[in-house]
Acetyltransferase (GNAT) family protein
Amino acid sequence: MFQVRKGKKADLPAVFRLIQELALYEKAPHEVTNSVERMEKDGFGPNPVYGFFVVERKEDASIIGTAIYYYRYSTWKGKRLYLEDYIITAEERGKGAGKLLFEAVLAKTLEDGCTGMMWQVLDWNEPAIGFYKKYGASFEGEWLNCHLQAEEIAALIEND
């Protein structure tokens, strides 16, 4: 019914549509400033910074999900795989595609010698939380996410 494979450059338009679908689901479509062109450069240039899997329907090879990951380094734990986005299109959720995709990322974590895998989930996304609980995932409540946008960093540097 479904098959998982490593993502290719030609998959990026479909993957980007999934990213936009996720942003809409998370009530933040205005936050997506990335593009297919930037994803191509960042993932398929001389120094790729991310990798991804796609899950397709076997009957028509249409992409119905993606898992985008990269590596980070924890001074406490060592090399970790960070699952940036894990998306299954709304129509295909609950049919087994998500399980196949998630387990491909779990296998990649071990294949690449990582000490573990990390990701985030919104506290209101009960279906996703329930899915991750089936795998025995730990949920942390103490850490706050912090970020600065490039424009903000540039303004800070200019004002020094």
Observations:
- The chain has one domain: 2-158.
- The radius of gyration is 17 Å.
- Residues 41 and 94 are 33 Å apart (CA to CA).
